[in-house]
Write a structure and sequence with these properties.
Distance between the termini: 49 Å
Helix content: 55-70%
Order of helices and strands: HHHHHEEHHHHEHHHEEHHHHHHHHHHHH
Radius of gyration: 26 Å
Largest sheet: 3 strands, antiparallel
Structural class: mainly alpha
Number of strands: 5
Shape: elongated
Number of helices: 24
Strand order of the largest sheet: 3-5-4
Strand content: under 5%
């Protein structure tokens, strides 16, 4: 722990431009997206939601003097970079758009969000099986690492060889053996039409190499489209932005690898438990490193699965890790608002994501939601904290008096209410108050009023 806290800040590779220059380059990449985000945020009424309505597309193209294709592409980039937020059929400016001209860190975070979403920016070739596309996306970090470590251009054949090796490793990990010459697939009475990927597999290694080449071209074009690399005749080179982003992700992985618990290789639950006693700064470093080693979608899904579990501490920590994810997690977080156990956490996450001060974010909770969250937090303290913390937790209740708190806690229906009240009664030094809390616990347990 001490080693992590005193570890000197890593220095970017020699030749990396200063952050101000990197931010300038990121602003240039996203210039059309920023113009469209400002236009959409200033357009009253519905019609700017995705997919961009036809009449809004035409108005934007006329107002901004761009082609419809440029408007559509810029709109997608604005959403992926967190420059606009969708609320029903209305687009609102994201916090990054408000900070765009003055905050280089916000600009770089927005560009990295776009960089992470490169496979959404550039559509995959038609006719290729989704599994093959997913394998290519999963293999791309290895390709980017080679480009970054080479500190210059790398030939396409070298990149293709690495991509093929990584795809083969992924297939082996999943126990998928590609069919080659002399091997036949099981017979089927009604075989469906073959996809391009099916044809590639049954045609043997030569056709598989062709498929990998097609997917590599797609990946390189997608990364070039977001400004991460440049393409020459038969070679590719990372841009300063791309080189910096890959270095940051590699550094995060190295930091995590040095942690005593080795959190980068842990499940989400074990990683969160490993971070539970860290202060906020080191904990966020661990979250970033863990996230950097996974695709955004799978990481968010795993964190939300942990949040749905019975451990209240992990529920709170999962949403802390989701704060580090930022914009890419917004749709999934918004989707869990209908789940009572996650709704208070999701409301607070969204309030902070939309730019509210964390101290004021509690205002978005109803009285019942705030009470439910108080019980859930108390459960986390009772399971993992010290008794003194549980007593002090009383001061954070919105009710103001213990009798009012007990009345509303009994009504809120949290599954851990009895255990929380019993633990609070056992910990509180005031005998009269402890007696009242025990009585409330008994009434909840027996279903009494």
């Amino acid at each position: 722990m001490t080693t992590r806290r005193t570890r000197p800040a890593p220095r970017p590779p020699e030749g990396t431009p200063p952050r101000a220059e990197l931010a300038r380059q990121a602003r240039a990449v996203l210039a059309d997206a920023v113009r469209i985000a400002h236009w959409a945020a200033g357009t009253p009424g519905p019609g700017t939601a995705a997919p961009l309505a036809a009449h809004a597309l035409e108005r934007a193209a006329t107002a901004l003097e761009l082609s419809p294709a440029q408007v559509r592409a810029g709109w997608d980039r604005a959403r992926l970079a967190g420059l606009v937020e969708l609320h029903g059929d209305t687009a609102r400016p994201g916090w990054r758009l408000r900070a765009w001209d003055r905050d280089d860190s916000a600009v770089l975070r927005g560009w990295v969000a776009l960089f992470d979403a490169w496979s959404l920016v550039h559509a995959a070739p038609e006719g290729i099986e989704a599994g093959a596309v997913a394998e290519a996306v999963e293999a791309v970090p290895q390709v980017l690492s080679l480009l970054q470590l080479s500190a210059g251009s790398v030939t396409v054949p070298a990149l293709l060889d690495l991509l093929g090796q990584r795809v083969a490793e992924l297939q082996e990990e999943r126990c998928e053996v590609p069919l080659g010459p002399g091997r036949s697939a099981p017979a089927a009475s009604a075989a469906p039409a073959e996809t391009a990927a099916d044809q590639a597999a049954t045609a043997g290694p030569a056709r598989s190499a062709d498929l990998n080449a097609l997917l590599l071209d797609w990946a390189l074009e997608g990364l070039a489209a977001v400004g991460a690399l440049t393409l020459g005749k038969g070679h590719a080179t990372l841009t300063p932005l791309g080189n910096w982003a890959v270095w940051v992700k590699l550094e995060q992985i190295c930091v995590a690898a040095q942690s005593p618990a080795g959190n980068i290789e842990q499940s989400a639950a074990d990683m969160l438990l490993g971070c539970a006693r860290l202060t906020p700064g080191p904990a966020r470093d661990e979250y970033r490193a863990w996230l950097a080693a996974r695709t955004v979608g799978s990481a968010v899904a795993e964190l939300l699965a942990v949040a749905r579990g019975e451990d209240a501490l992990l529920r709170g920590l999962a949403f802390e890790a989701l704060r580090v994810v930022g914009a890419p997690a917004e749709p999934e977080v918004r989707a869990v608002l209908a789940e009572p156990s996650l709704r208070p956490y999701a409301l607070l996450w969204l309030a902070e994501y939309e730019g509210n001060d964390p101290d004021d974010a509690q205002d978005v909770l109803s009285r019942e939601e705030a009470t439910w969250l108080w019980v859930d937090t108390a459960a986390a303290v009772a399971d993992h904290g010290e008794t003194g913390l549980l007593v002090r937790h009383l001061d954070s209740a919105v009710q103001g008096t213990v009798p009012a708190l007990l009345d509303e806690v009994r009504a809120v229906g949290h599954p851990r209410t009895v255990q929380v009240l019993v633990a609070l009664a056992a910990a509180h030094p005031d005998p009269a108050l402890a007696k009242a809390v025990r009585r409330a616990a008994f009434q909840v347990h027996t279903g009494g009023a």
